């Protein structure tokens, strides 16, 4: 029996797949990443860049890693620490204080800030600002730059990326994955990581592995640059987003649209007049920036599991990695966890047992209908 | 049969029906749009004609929608007066009024949506419109996009100063606004557009110092202007002072340089069809005719106004169900090859520190090097990365290059750089000019202020169902709480919407 061409093949050149591949290549493993399109072309580069997901078991490791990612990768990610959430009404303020109490419980420092402090930190906030909370942790980074940095750093460690190369089948022998078929031929591997976002379910179904996922389309808008604020990570009023280092205000939020996806991925990512509802909320959040021009909007396709939590699991020499719509900020730690699963069989730095695929063993076959997670039909 | 369960946080039913619905909407009151609107009105149809001019001074300053190059006069600061001037200068607008067309000037069409692959959220196809005070949506039975063309900008040394502008912006300021601030111009190019530009200037008493042509013959077939066409010449650079251009330096084939005094350089090498609205609605192609169900493109974009008017009439006649042929645009001249030849000539005479993207201050070297913007660190490893190494990974992708370098991401929405970026990427990848990869357009296709774009009257369902992310409460439960009493308690608090 000949040795496989690659120690590990990763399907999906999104931020989860590339971080995983980078961690594996740093260990000296021979790694190949395959993608149906280009690096980070889907949700990995189309998100708000947030890195403050304290609920995740990966969060502490993420927080440890982010400040050193530019040095570890060798390329800039635009990572900025900390975050402010400001309230424009009492309901939101109560809500943010509740979030703060959760963070207190977990040992993450949060300052409750009054309206004057909030307005000092966020000069484009208005008279409607009632105060908010200041995370002394978390932060944000530039999604496109980060995913490209993971890709380049992977290549610098000898890893290989083939774009425009969809996996058409996963080959197995004796219950073990042996490789993948693609239009460019068969590639053999010792282990396989499937981090293909919404396409994970379709890739694994032929192996008899059911991964419950539903894809949704979400939208964002971005303005021309505003003067730089002390902290770029500012949101509230039903929005997520950030001020980029260039000064642009990039924000998303609001209703998603459940969509069918094909194995080849989404055929288009249209936007809707939701841009107007987003603009309204940004204008309410930042009244002193209401004159800024909106210059772009875009949509991204993200997958969700039935409980909205990741699946990070290993079945024989196969690792499944979906972050269920919250993948970008956690990506430095996710790659570490996947590396551990592939190499050691278990995550070394945190418990991820509750993220197993097995939790869905008893899931109803009509789980989408039960949640109303169904594509719209054009009338 | 029971009612299906609905996800209250999904978009279902939240996008409002359009604020107004019309029989026929025509976007663009140039020659094609005016002819189309009159054709429909005279056929007894209800017609709304929309035109973004007069454009707000803020947008003119940002070179949107045309490359005004800082050569508009202060007349633009008086919008009511400009509006009167526009109407006085175009008799067909008066005819439209008389024919019962609902003419809306100073109104911009910034979005066009329809249900298609990837979205079925709309009650019907609709336009996004805005004026200086508000935005709204409009449905239509028939939509004619007579959006004409925009300027094609190619950079050279000194092009990023006031006084360097596009031929269409010049024509607009002269013929529509009466608000051109220059007195002595140099025209770049000698094709039909350049010849028409020079003739227009001369007819209006604006001195034309020269036309510059990199090829060895005059390219256009129209009447020659009085000014000299300097064939086989290179543009070395434009020089000037605080008020912009004061002279250009050119060289003949033998390398002899000379200085030409002027206050304005008009780039008239080419114009680019304004296909933004059709593209964001997912039109597979944008030739004159029906490009999507009920959506028509009209206007030769780069031909004469008579050609455009004929096409506008024909397209509307077809849209009204008549069996008439739509005259095709003249495609005998290889415009992409001409554009590419001009760009190569300008690249040859300018340092690679020349800006490609003025908004984001991206130089040609940084574009080809795929280097991040100046406010980011440039670690050593980045020096080893370039467009060449990106090309090892796949074909040139303008979106990827754009997001890494920020070229094209500024407030002019790439109007001054997309054509040159596209051609520079094609050159780097050894692709023919016609195969140059193009960056895409996004809504809003014109910059619109947040407070204007905002929907201040959204549907109650939108307000009630709004969530920051997908509204999946269990997504935000701290990991340690999963499966504990704390999870139950937190899910009950604030309906579980706990995330940031």
Please give a structural write-up:
The complex is a heterodimer of chains A (379) and B (500). The mean pLDDT of chain A is 96. In chain A, helix 1 packs parallel to helix 5, helix 1 packs across helix 8 and helix 2 crosses helix 8. In chain A, strands 1, 2, 6, 7, 8, 9, 16 and 17 form an eight-stranded mixed sheet that branches. In chain A, strands 10, 12, 13, 14 and 15 form a five-stranded antiparallel sheet that branches. Chain A is globular and about 70 Å long. By secondary structure, chain A is of the alpha/beta class. Chain B has 500 residues and is an alpha/beta fold. Helices cover 29% and strands 20% of the residues of chain B. Chain B is built from 17 helices and 21 strands. In chain B, strands 1, 2, 3, 4, 5, 6, 17 and 18 form an eight-stranded mixed sheet that branches. In chain B, strands 8-15-9-10-11 form a five-stranded parallel sheet. In chain B, strands 12-13-14 form a three-stranded antiparallel sheet. Chain B is globular. Chains A and B meet through helix 3, helix 5, strand 10, strand 14 and helix 7 of A and helix 11, helix 13, strand 21 and helix 15 of B.
């Amino acid at each position: 029996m000949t040795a496989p061409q690659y120690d590990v093949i990763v399907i999906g050149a999104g931020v989860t797949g590339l971080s995983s591949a980078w961690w594996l290549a740093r260990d000296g493993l021979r790694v190949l990443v395959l993608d149906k399109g280009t690096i980070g072309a889907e949700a990995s580069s189309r998100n708000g860049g947030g890195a403050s997901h304290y609920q995740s078991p990966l969060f502490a490791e993420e927080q440890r890693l982010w400040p050193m990612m530019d040095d570890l990768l060798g390329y800039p990610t635009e990572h900025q620490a900390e975050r402010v959430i400001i309230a424009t009404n009492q309901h939101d303020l109560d809500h943010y204080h509740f979030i703060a109490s959760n963070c207190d419980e977990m040992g993450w420092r949060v300052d409750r800030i009054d309206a004057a402090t909030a307005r000092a930190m966020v000069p484009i906030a208005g008279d409607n600002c009632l105060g908010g909370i200041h995370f002394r942790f978390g932060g944000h980074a530039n999604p496109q730059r980060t995913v490209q940095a993971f890709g380049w750093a992977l290549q610098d460690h000898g890893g290989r990326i083939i774009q425009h190369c969809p996996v058409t089948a996963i080959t197995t022998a004796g219950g073990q994955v042996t490789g993948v078929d693609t239009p460019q031929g068969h590639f053999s591997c010792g282990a396989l990581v499937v981090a293909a976002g919404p396409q994970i379910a379709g890739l694994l179904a032929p192996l008899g592995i059911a991964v419950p996922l539903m894809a949704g389309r979400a939208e964002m808008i971005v303005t021309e640059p505003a003067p730089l604020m002390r902290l770029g990570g500012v949101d509230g009023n039903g929005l997520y987003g950030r001020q980029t280092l260039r000064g642009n205000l990039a924000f998303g939020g609001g209703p998603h649209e459940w969509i069918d996806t094909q194995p080849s991925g989404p055929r288009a990512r249209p936007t809707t007049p939701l841009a107007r509802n987003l603009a309204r909320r940004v204008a309410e959040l930042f009244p002193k920036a209401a004159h800024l021009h909106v210059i772009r909007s875009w949509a991204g396709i993200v997958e969700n599991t039935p409980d909205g939590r990741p699946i990070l699991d290993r079945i024989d020499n196969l690792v499944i990695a979906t972050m269920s719509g919250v993948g970008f900020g956690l990506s430095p730690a996710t790659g570490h966890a996947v590396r551990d699963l592939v190499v050691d069989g278990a995550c070394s730095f945190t418990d991820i047992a509750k993220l197993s695929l097995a939790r869905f063993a008893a899931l109803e076959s009509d789980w989408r209908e039960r949640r109303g997670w169904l594509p719209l039909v054009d009338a | 049969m029971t009612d299906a369960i609905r996800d209250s946080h999904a978009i279902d039913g939240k996008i409002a029906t359009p604020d107004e619905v019309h029989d026929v909407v025509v976007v663009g009151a140039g020659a094609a749009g005016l002819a189309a609107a009159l054709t429909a009105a005279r056929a007894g149809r209800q017609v709304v004609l929309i035109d973004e001019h007069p454009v707000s001074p803020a947008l003119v300053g940002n070179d949107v929608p045309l490359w005004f190059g800082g050569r508009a006069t202060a007349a633009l600061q008086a919008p009511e007066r400009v509006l009167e001037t526009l109407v006085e200068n175009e008799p067909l607008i008066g005819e439209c009024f008389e024919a019962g067309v609902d003419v809306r000037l100073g109104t911009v069409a910034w979005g066009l949506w329809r249900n298609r692959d990837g979205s079925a959220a709309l009650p019907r196809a609709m336009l996004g419109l805005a004026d200086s005070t508000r935005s709204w949506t409009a449905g239509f039975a028939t939509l004619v996009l007579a959006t004409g063309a925009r300027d094609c900008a190619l950079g050279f040394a000194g092009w990023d100063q006031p006084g360097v502008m596009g031929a269409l912006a010049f024509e607009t300021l002269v013929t529509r606004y009466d608000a051109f601030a220059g007195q002595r111009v140099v025209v770049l190019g000698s094709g039909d557009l350049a010849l028409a530009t020079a003739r227009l200037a001369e007819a209006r008493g604006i001195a034309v110092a020269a036309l510059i042509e990199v090829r060895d013959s005059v390219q256009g077939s129209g009447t020659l202007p009085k000014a000299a066409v300097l064939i086989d010449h290179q543009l070395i650079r434009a020089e000037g002072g605080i008020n912009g251009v004061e002279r250009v330096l050119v060289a003949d084939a033998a390398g002899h340089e000379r200085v030409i005094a002027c206050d304005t350089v008009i780039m008239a090498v080419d114009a680019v069809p304004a296909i933004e609205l059709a593209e964001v609605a997912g039109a597979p192609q944008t030739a004159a005719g029906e490009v999507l169900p009920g959506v028509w493109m009209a206007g030769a974009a780069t031909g004469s106004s008579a050609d455009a008017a004929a096409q506008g009439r024909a397209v509307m006649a077809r849209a009204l169900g008549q069996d008439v042929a739509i005259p095709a645009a003249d495609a005998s001249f290889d415009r992409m090859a001409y554009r590419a030849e001009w760009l190569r000539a300008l690249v040859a005479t300018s340092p690679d520190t020349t800006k490609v993207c003025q908004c984001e201050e991206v130089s040609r070297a940084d574009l080809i090097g795929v280097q991040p913007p100046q406010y980011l660190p440039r670690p050593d490893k980045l020096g080893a990365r370039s467009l060449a190494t990106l090309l090892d990974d796949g074909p040139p992708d303008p979106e990827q290059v754009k997001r890494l370098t920020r070229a094209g991401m500024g407030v002019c929405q790439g109007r001054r750089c997309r054509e040159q970026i596209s051609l520079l990427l094609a050159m780097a990848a050894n692709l023919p000019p016609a195969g140059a990869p193009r960056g895409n357009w996004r809504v809003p296709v014109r910059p619109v202020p947040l407070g204007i774009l905002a929907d201040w009257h959204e549907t109650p369902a939108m307000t009630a169902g709004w969530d920051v992310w997908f509204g999946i409460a269990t997504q935000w439960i701290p990991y340690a709480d999963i499966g504990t009493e704390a999870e139950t308690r937190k899910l009950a608090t604030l309906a579980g919407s706990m995330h940031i």
